[in-house]
Write a structure and sequence with these properties.
By secondary structure, the chain is α/β, with parallel strands linked by helices. It has helices spanning 31-37, 49-53, 56-66, 83-96, 107-122, 194-213, 219-240, 246-266, 270-282, 286-315, 322-339, 356-364, 378-388; strands at residues 2-6, 12-16, 20-23, 42-46, 70-74, 100-105, 131-132, 142-146, 158-162, 169-173, 181-184. The protein has 13 helices and eleven strands. The chain has a six-stranded parallel beta sheet, with helices on both faces. Strands 7-10-9 form a three-stranded mixed beta sheet. It has a two-stranded antiparallel sheet with strand order 1-2. Strand 9 (158-162) and strand 10 (169-173) form a beta hairpin. Helix 4 (83-96) packs across helix 5 and helix 6 (194-213) packs antiparallel against helix 7. The protein binds zinc ion (ZN).
């Protein structure tokens, strides 16, 4: 879907949703047919080892083989895929010569598929593709089959790859790296442990909140952010407390995908800029790092976007003025973190003596912070880390 509105200001923007989504329990069985529809004959499947072990990869391979495709699996990568791991996957691709890439797994599997697509299709090194619109030529078609509900990697074109030399996460995106199709099969999310459902779900919620108030947000992207928020805010509390039905899990999976569409068009904000250095320097997993920082960022941002936060609160049945919405929403988010048994402070994450100035300098260099609704200088970022101690 492409929507382009060109009229008098302020309704002048473009919006892209490049990925077709195929939704339904058992939809993974359609992977082979969908691959054939893309004209593919040879599929390289990236799946992390845990996903291979629990059988989801075999289900995908079976569907591909039934449709007559030759397949190869690459699984030698970690939770935060590194540039050298992507290079290893690219070597596998160069030997196998795929005409389709399939990212089957959580965010790491999908990001790894995108990373391999950049290097296999365009050459060079991963760091050459930092930022947006950096591909130098056509890329292979690709399909996402997410097994978690959170990163939104299935519906946005950015690969998060860790630079081996600096330890920092690089966001590498290009519309040509977006998956052509994302298969949302809720059954695949049922095997993830509750802790992973919480980590990925909080990340998705942060994507909805940050993209909703981003400086790059448009009426179209906010439509996706808002609906993602409604789905996630209503259903995530049930899922993270262990009571999620198929319907609530489907809603969370769909909400996470909608948030991905929003990110693709509106980017994120300071919570993600602050989270990435915590992952790089202290190995805090992404959803936890974002979750710790988001309430503090919401309080900080309220002066710039209190009425937008009040709208989000109204969606969960809480009336708040623009002036009080920041602290009310921050408290709501902190309560959800506690329900999800996630940490609510840096101390809780095991960081007792953070080097705040080094963390703030690293956060200030994060591209995504530039889209925060209230400008954040290094001193602001340091104060936000202090508030989270
Ligand atoms: Zn995130």
């Amino acid at each position: 879907m492409n929507v382009r509105v060109s009229s008098s200001d302020p309704l002048t923007f473009s919006f892209t949703a490049a990925t077709r989504i195929v939704v339904g329990p058992g939809a993974i069985r359609r992977l082979g047919e969908i691959a054939r529809d893309l004209g593919a004959t040879r599929a390289l499947v990236t799946s992390d080892r845990g996903i291979v072990e629990c059988g989801h990869t075999a289900a995908g391979i079976e569907s591909l083989c039934d449709a007559g495709l030759a397949t190869e699996v690459f699984s030698a990568f970690t939770e935060n895929p590194s540039s050298s791991e992507v290079e290893a996957g690219t070597a596998v691709a160069q030997a196998f010569r795929p005409d389709l890439l399939v990212g089957l797994g959580g965010g790491s599997s999908m990001d790894c598929a995108k990373g391999i697509n950049f290097l296999h299709s365009c050459g060079g090194r991963m760091r050459d593709y930092r930022g947006r619109g950096t591909a130098t030529g056509p890329m292979l078609p690709s399909i996402a089959v997410p097994t978690t509900a959170g990163t939104g990697s299935e519906t946005q074109s950015f690969a998060l790859i860790t630079d081996d030399e600096t330890g920092m996460k690089m966001a590498c995106g290009d519309p040509r790296a977006a998956f052509r199709v994302a298969i949302l099969d809720v059954n695949l999310t049922l095997t993830q442990p509750l802790s992973l459902a919480a980590l990925t779900g909080i990340d998705a919620l942060a994507h909805a909140v940050e993209s909703h108030v981003s400086t790059a947000a448009t009426p179209a992207s906010r439509t996706f952010s808002r609906e993602a928020w409604r789905l996630l805010a209503a259903n995530l509390p049930h899922v993270v407390s262990g009571g999620g039905s198929i319907d609530t899990r489907s809603a969370v999976q769909f909400g996470a995908a909608l948030a991905g569409f929003a990110i693709e068009n509106a980017m994120l904000g300071a919570a993600h800029a602050l989270a990435n250095p915590l992952s790089a320097a202290h190995h805090v997993v992404h959803g936890q790092a974002v979750g710790v920082m988001l309430p503090h960022v919401v309080r900080f941002n309220a002066a710039a976007c209190g009425s937008a936060y009040a709208n989000l609160l109204a969606d969960v049945g809480i009336a708040a003025t623009a002036g009080e919405a920041g602290s009310t929403l921050a408290d709501w988010l902190t309560g959800l973190l506690a329900t999800a048994r996630l940490k609510t402070s840096l101390h809780g994450c095991g960081i007792d003596a953070p080097d705040i100035s080094a963390l703030a300098a690293a956060a200030a260099s994060q591209w995504t912070g530039g889209f925060n609704p209230r400008p954040v200088a290094a001193a602001d970022l340091a104060a936000l880390y202090e508030a989270a101690r």
